[in-house]
Design brief:
Length: about 280
């Protein structure tokens, strides 16, 4: 029987969505998980997670005129609050929005001054937009590129080839921006991930959400792009981090050195942090 020592991996979860209250807790089964802002660190540390990253998130309804920029900024401010509350355990990600170009650029400048260099995960469908080739978004990303930000975006395009192609255009356009596509998924989405590695050397994938439950997918991904391009992520609290930790740590197709890169070395390199 394999004895699993998770502490040795110095796990950094690149893809989480921490929360202050149930309003920004996107778990689908809150009453059964005994979750709270206070318990997040306890629960994740019990699985060997040394640091977490990602944005505070909440869904909005365009039919109600949402989100406003104030809505978006409130999520970012909550992320900053949690950064202080968790005393270095949490690396915040923040939101920008193509409907609010001037405000988004100002937010990039504000976050840069505060030492925050991670945008996202951006989840377009929760915030009322979908076009990654929108020139308003690109204007914002030009500022992100200037300030050497890292962009994390929801890359699961499902069967929507138009959306996937728009994502491709964005990745191709911003060659000097580290861009992380969240969720390897499979079939069409996975094929688009592989294509993006061919035309942007700064493209990466985090393993959260759909994908690595497919046997051999992680091996396929690393063989194609190299161990330096894959990040560990769970999408907590939407997804169960135990599944994703086990999906990497117990994968006999992946070497111990490759696991080290996925679990922490790649996140340390791009974010400039230590587990």
């Amino acid at each position: 029987m394999t004895e699993l020592n998770l502490d040795k991996y110095n796990i950094i979860d690149f893809h989480t969505h921490p929360f202050k209250t149930d309003e920004t807790n996107i778990c689908s089964h809150i009453p059964y998980c005994h979750m709270s802002m206070e318990n997040t660190v306890r629960d994740l540390k019990s699985m060997g997670v040394k640091k977490i990253c990602g944005s505070v998130i909440k869904g909005f309804e365009r039919s109600k005129g949402e989100p406003t920029w104030d809505d978006m900024k409130a999520l970012n401010d909550e992320a900053l609050f949690l950064r202080d509350y968790y005393k270095g355990y949490y690396v915040p990600g923040f939101h920008v929005h193509p409907f609010f170009v001037k405000e988004s650029i100002a937010e990039i400048e504000r976050m840069h001054k505060l030492g925050v260099n991670l945008i996202g995960e951006l989840v377009h469908y929760m915030h009322g937009w979908s076009d990654y080739s929108d020139k308003r978004l690109w204007e914002i990303l030009e500022a992100a590129e200037h300030y050497k930000m890292i962009l994390s975006f929801h890359a699961d395009s499902g069967a929507n080839e138009t959306l996937a192609n728009q994502m491709d255009e964005m990745v191709k356009r911003f060659q000097n921006l580290v861009i992380v596509g969240a969720h390897p998924c499979d079939r069409k989405t996975f094929e688009h991930h592989l294509k993006r590695f061919d035309f942007n050397s700064n493209y990466m994938v985090d393993v959260s959400g759909g994908g690595i439950f497919r046997h051999g997918l992680l091996r396929h991904l690393i063989d194609y792009c190299g161990k330096e391009k894959v990040l560990y992520g769970s999408d907590y609290p939407t997804c169960n981090p135990a599944m994703f930790i086990g999906g990497v740590a117990l994968d006999f197709l992946i070497t111990e050195e490759e696991k080290e890169y996925v679990f922490h070395k790649n996140a340390e390199r791009i974010l400039g942090i230590k587990a």
